# Entry
Amino acid sequence: MKVAYLLGSLGRGGTETLILGIFRNIKKNQFDAIGFYRKTGALEQDFLHSGIPMLYLPNTKNYFKYLWNLRKAIVLNNIDIIHAQQPFDALNARLACIFKNKPVILSHHGYHFGHDFLWMTVLRIILPLASKNIFVSKTQMEFFIKKFHLKKRNQTFIYNGISFDKFISVNEPKLPKEV
# Structure
């Protein structure tokens, strides 16, 4: 089974940092994955050296051409599951996979407060169309179920977490022992 992770950009954000940590550990667990991204960013080189293949699919002026390129990438890479990190990417995946019967999973990393009308419209459209919505806490999941009238069976939560290994320095100074 091969999973495509859809990332909007490779900037230095919380979602990108979390996914980069996942990518660095995926190969250890012999998990077949690929990353698709629309925009470059500060973490691009880190992602390219993470051990997971990355495919740059930039937005084009012709939205249908972008969807066609995404669809081709999904087919050519034998993708079984698409895991989006943002509502826009989940909607793009759902549209690109029309008649392909590919599950589209959407992870929610926040509550989406303060977003503009277009963002909220896309969110309202994709929430019920996602094969599964994954939330980072039970409280967040319950909030979305109530606010957007979602069916409980298509929602789940996995507690958000990061690997603290990257924060441990091999050159860390040793503290003196107490006397």
Remarks:
- Residues 132 and 154 are 5 Å apart (CA to CA).
- The first helix runs from residue 14 to 26.
